[in-house]
Structures are given as structure tokens and as C-alpha cells.
Amino acid sequence: MNRPQVKVKSPSEIELMRQSGRLLAQVFAMLDDFITPGITTMAIDSRVEDFIVNTLNARPASKGQYGYQYSLNTSVNEVVCHGVPSESRILKSTDIVNVDITLEKNGFIADSSKMYLLADASVEARKLSNTTYQAMWQGIKQVRAGARLGDIGYAIQKHAEAAGYSVVREYCGHGIGREMHEAPQVLHYGLKNTGMTLQAGMTFTIEPMINQGKAKVKTKKDGWTVVTKDKKLSAQWEHTILVTETGCEVLTLRDEEKVE
Predict the structure, then answer these.
(1) CA-to-CA distance for 129 and 159, rounded, in angstroms?
(2) What predicted TM-score, i.e. pTM, was given to this entire model?
(3) Of 29, 188, 226, 254, which residue is the least packed, with the fewest Cβ within 10 Å?
């Protein structure tokens, strides 16, 4: 069995990836004031599609991919990933929701997700989201030319499990570029000094899904929505990363994350 070849990006391709990443960051900035109690997850989808197409002159890359009909995933509370937007799912003030969006511009795709914690979300929900965010960054910090893929997974798993949480194993990060899913697979658990050696010019996502309870998940009858088996909360954060000689560049970095 041949392993899929990792596509190392050229300087011109990297510049196009940067452009897509910057545009995607703008989508989340637009959503920051839009996601409030009382709106439906379908309204989020419609707003994002309109903004990507008509304001950014780009394409929502998820729409039509694998037969999926929408521009994003909205994963609320116990939904781990792939939550399908719905007119009947009205956000409550206690909800947490992960919004996962892909955007293609000039042939290159960026992929990112963000947790939105509504005003009355519980202390436990906030802790889970914060720990997941920190775990993602622990993984990102391992990225540089010469590091190994297992270093990323090890750092994420260690941080999540130290807080008493579990790491979902069925879904992982992935290479990205002209295709939404390229090699390599980026696991969010693992051992140091194992796996593929990273090289400058690789681009991939880091997107840990961390559960409040057990790691076990199941897919609902719609064939998309993945939920925790124990119905406890799940959180996810995601960025698209470029490997550089000295470290990495977060191509989908949002303004509130930038260090002055």
C-alpha cells in the first residue's frame, strides 16, 4: 500500500495559503457579534455563506464536499464534530458551539474552528473550552522542521488528560492545500519522537476534539453529526499551520490571538 505523498508547498503556493487563511480569520471576526442566544444554527450557516461569497469573493469549501450541503459545521454542547446546521436548533444562553469553516480562494483552502461560549455557559464548559484551546497551542508549539508528528499528538494528549479530559481518536488533523484533506494525518494523541518528520513548506491542520467525559463517540442517524456517547460536553479548536525552518506560522490566526 502506497502512502499518500505529502505536498510541500512552494513560496507562491504558501502566499496563496496565507491569503485564504487571512480571509477565513475575517469570517470569525464577523461572527463574533452575530452568534447570540435566539439565533438558529442555520442562520449562522446562511450568514457565513453570504459573507464568504459576496464580501470576500471566495468559496465555502465544505459545501458540496462529500455530498455535504452546508458551508460549515455547528457542533453544540455534546456534539463532537460535523454538526449539521438546522432551522430548529435555536441557541440558548447556556450553550457552547463550535463553528468549523473552510474557505477556498485562488485554488487554496484554509480550515479553522472556534468555540463560542454564550453568556450563561457553565464554569465547567468554559474550563473544557479553555483547556482544549491550550491543548491545541501546546501542539502548535511543537511544530518546526525536524520535529515529528508524534510530538504534536503527545503534547495535546498530555495537556488534555492532565485536566481530567479525554481525546477523541476517530478524527484528526490533516494536510491541506488545493485539497481539503491531504496527507499527512495529524493525530491528537501519540508518543514523542514517533511519526513523520516535518519539513518546511508542509501545511496541515491541528484540531483537537476534547471530551469532558469518556472519549467514546457515535454518529447520529443523519450520517454526519458525531456526539459523545456519555452525552457529556465536547470542545474543539482548529487552526491551519505552515511548517517553517524555525517553527511555524498559524495561517488562520485571528486578531484577538495576535501578540503585540
Answers:
(1) 13
(2) 0.97
(3) 29
